[in-house]
Amino acid sequence: MTGRARDEIPYGGTAAGGLLDAVRQRLAESGAEPTPARVAAALRAQGRLLGDAEVLGAAEELRCELVGTGPLEPLLADPSVTDVLVSAPDRVWVDRGGGLELTGVAFADAASVRRLAQRLAAVAGRRLDDARPWVDARLPDGTRMHAVLPPVAVGSPYLSLRVVRPKAFSLGELAAAGTVPPGGDRVLRALVQARQSFLISGGTGTGKTTLLSTLLGLVGQRERIVLAEDSAELRPDHPHVVRLECRPANQEGAGLVTLEDLVRQALRMRPDRLVVGEVRGPEVTSLLAALNTGHAGCGTVHANAAADVPARLEALGTAAGLDRAALHSQLAAALSVVIHLVRDREGRRRVAEVDVLERDSAGLVVPVPALRWGEEAFAYDRGWPRLLMLIGGAL
Predict the structure, then answer these.
(1) CA-to-CA distance for 363 and 276, rounded, in angstroms?
(2) Buried b (16+ CB within 10 A) or exposed e, 136-156
(3) H or E element at residue 302
(4) What is the largest CA-CA distance in the chain?
């Protein structure tokens, strides 16, 4: 069944809800996989005889709920979908790169959403119940999930799924999609080949991880890339990638592995490129220290504008015990460039600007725009001579 056809069927639409509930309970109690034969046997046990098409439909629906992602499965299988958001049983949204769209997918009720969220959390080895009503986890296929249960979530459980594609986009594909303006791929390629350390900034859903995965694929084939991520989302197309992922504490509060721990371990793994998937905590101090000891590196950071990146890093560094002057000294020597991404009014992701980092008269690091988005090509700004000096040999 195609994703579009399935979009029009409320979950529970292939057979009477009460009948499927009884079959669901029987299969769950037995622990048996919902194969067509077992579903047919369970249906017969309920005193109902159905045709082949009805049995196959019921089997597929139950398999999706008990094994897959329920009615969300066709949405997640759509290669254009990056996010699936459930805000009510009948309010399921997707993002296909052009902003949020309401789908025709519907769950039978809030309890169905809760069951799916709890089962996905269990698959990820996490707990989701009244005592711990939210969870942030990665599913075995790489999909990032976040769920919140009532009463914290008002009215219905909320479920958010971020799809991680198995293969990174090429720069050409990003240019064709309008993320990079014509000719901009040459500048970004030169930035990577010149081994300049950089950050990709932007808001949630602007494509920071997507662009970083693409740029890491341009790293020289003989270089070793070590990734440190809170949740493994980067998929660079590169032959030598070492992946490290954080681990939450168990129910007894033991076993926590933080991003700062991973950065420290990464330094002992001979990285040619040290990558932090998202800089958002005390790991900023370890990363800046590493980039000041001969390592090239990059990562992403949440910021509303490129001009806000130093303030964002300053806040993170202060929380980690690094004073303002020390942070700016480390930052000036560690990072050279900020690439800032935005989503325009139509929801399209694009590189809004490329800034170089320079010190002002007070000794503080400030981003200076070098390139700005243009429909036909990047427009040059006052920081372009500095950027050209950094990457000129590779351009």
Answers:
(1) 26
(2) bbbbeeebbbbbbbeeebeeb
(3) strand 296-302
(4) 83
- Token match 């299969």: residue? 27
- pTM (two decimals): 0.79
* Beta pairing class for 83-88 and 158-162: antiparallel
Residues 242 and 276 reside in one and the same domain: yes
Number of residues in the chain = 395
272 pLDDT more than 90: yes
Q: Who has greater pLDDT, 339 or 123?
A: 339
Domain boundary at 126, 142, 164, which? Answer: 164
Question: Would residue 321 be called left, alpha or beta, if left means φ above 0 and alpha means ψ between -120 and 50 degrees?
Answer: left
Q: What is the CATH number of the domain that holds 186?
A: 3.40.50.300
- In one-letter notation, the amino acid at residue 263 is V
Q: Are residues 110 and 233 in the same domain?
A: no
Nearest in space to 2 (alpha carbons), one of 77, 107, 79: 77
Q: For residue range 344-353, list pLDDT tens digits in order.
A: 888 889 999 9
* 280-307 average pLDDT score: 90
pLDDT for residue 190 is more than 50: yes
Same domain, 204 and 311: yes
**DSSP E strands: which ranges in 183-240?**
198-202, 225-229
**Inter-residue contact 141 to 45 (CB < 8 Å):** no
For 141, the domain range is 70-164
Instruction: Return the bridge partners of 223, or none.
Output: none
